[in-house]
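User: Batch of two.

Assistant: Item 1 of 2:
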Amino acid sequence: MKQYTWKNEQRKKITIFLLSLIVIIFIVAAIFGECTKRSFRNDIKNNHFFKDKKIILSTYSQELGCNNDGYAYDGDISSVEDLINISDCVVKIKLVDADKRQKCTTSLLSKVKVLEVYKGKLLKKQNIMLLEFIEPTKNQIMSVNGYNALKEGKEYIVFLKKFKNRNYSIEHNSGEKMDTDSIYAPVSPILGKYPTNNSYKKVKTLEKKRLNQESKPYKYNTVKNYEIFTDSSKVLNKYIYIGNQVYKRYGGK
């Protein structure tokens, strides 16, 4: 009887020990996960990726859809009139709370303030969320189709569509899905936004091999002031040509 009782006690102790160990493992994993999540948020909050001089630039092409899906192929655009016709909204904006950008799938979600409305139902002084086709990762800034992020303090003329592309997964940093009804995106990563000053004219073509990381890649810090990233003189010429039309139509500062 004593032997039976002793065995039961031993089993009880082992069971309690194993359960305690499992609980400790779960607690440690939860703490580690929360620390990692907070660290990631702080990187975004502090704009670490855009200020780190060691971060490299990488570009890649991604098919974003066509007109009825919320976007336009750049080949369909040859003038500012084309941009206006395919846009739901044409507005002047500036970045708000740059430190609070949200990271999404292959993109950033940025809050912007509407300064002027040229087309559409948005209101002056209204804040909206803008989907930017650029993704910061641990070691590099990944630009989709040559897009560069909005700069603090700058004002832009943007040609927007309401977000409709279901290929993108929009999630808040908390992991919760966001309502895409309040999100807008440029109709084109390269031709969909222009600064209100003439800095768009200062863009130069970049080396294809360096953009593709086939040779020494560019440090993002050295090209961060370029409005777009391209190795094509044809694309650059179109960008500047339409930029001149935008500047003439809507004026600069």
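Item 2 of 2:
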Amino acid sequence: MLAAGAAIATVGALAGCGGDDQASDGQVELTLWARSNSVPDDVQQLLDEQFPDYEITFQDIPDIEDKLRAALRSKSGLPDVVVMGGSLPSFFSVSDQFLDLADEAAASDAVDWTLDLGLTPDGKQLTLPTDIGPWGFFYRADALEALGYPTEPEAVAAEIDSWEAYRELAEATAATGQYVCDHAGQVYQARLAQQGYAYFEQQDGEAVNAVDSPISHDAFVESAALAQDGLCTNTEPYTPEWNAAMTQEDIVAFVGPAWEDGLLQSAGEQQSGAWRVTTVPGGPAATGGSYVAALAASDHPDEARELAAFIGGAEFQKAGYLDKGLFPASTGVHADPEVATPQDFYGGQDTLGVLAQTAAEAPLVYQGPNSGTVAAQFFVALNDLASSDEDPAEVYESLLAATAEL
């Protein structure tokens, strides 16, 4: 990833809120911040075609959440519209610096819970979803067949319908020198999402610490056991080690969000046709992905809302899915016959259909402002436990103490 000092790639003249945002010919100027990997490849062309009367400048910002927070604190250098990820509740305390997208949300065809993620406790619609992360169990049909398991997605989901059944499969696979678990943290995250849990509960509009929960305890201890018992490769997605484990066919299945499809197809290119995807053991799970917001500092709030609505709409999300596998929040895209098609990499399976059903059935995961901070500590602990003989239950207790005041 590029260093922050060289992070900005622009098309056209740079313009931000509060700057000279009216072109000499009277054309409205808007600035859009986003990571290049969270928008379609031809984002500038899409925007130019959709808004011929506006001059829209796209800026590629890899460290977008940090840069946005800094601009919000200084109340200067802000874009008109931003596509961001991370923990949305961390921006709720400065919701007055964002435009309310309630009307745009009312017209949206997004999966309901994805809109709820951007709703502040006082009812302001801060964001619209642009892509989301329904989780799936990605597996190689030939590997499961060799172990005597079924190979069709529905049959696999019925056979591996619990985390106990998943562990049995992990043990059988590890005995052959291959693995159906890449990293225990992936399993842990999926188990929490299935329960709509992210360390905090909302009570009277406030985030209340709920870190000490049987949901987290059981998921943490049992996920750590997978790693300590040698049932995972202990490689994190988006690392060279993960890519190598996939290329060398050490990983023959894993639990992960939809956006890892692109990663899988790149690292597992030579295994095209063997892969399938089905429901995660234990039931549907999904997490948020990226969100679009419009800034209140914009000199053109109506046009900023219009741009945000387009980015949060079906056409833009369809392009993102076809270009980069960004899973759409739009139910209209889920039903689009140009998109919901058999995938050669997955042996002719329509993977969009499986994951869209998961997205529709998954529970809302409430995120508190400190959910990301707590999650990071638990993930680091799971990573450390993979090469340690410490008791996961004792580590869990230490994590409770470390996060008790959050």
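The first helix runs from residue 43 to 50.
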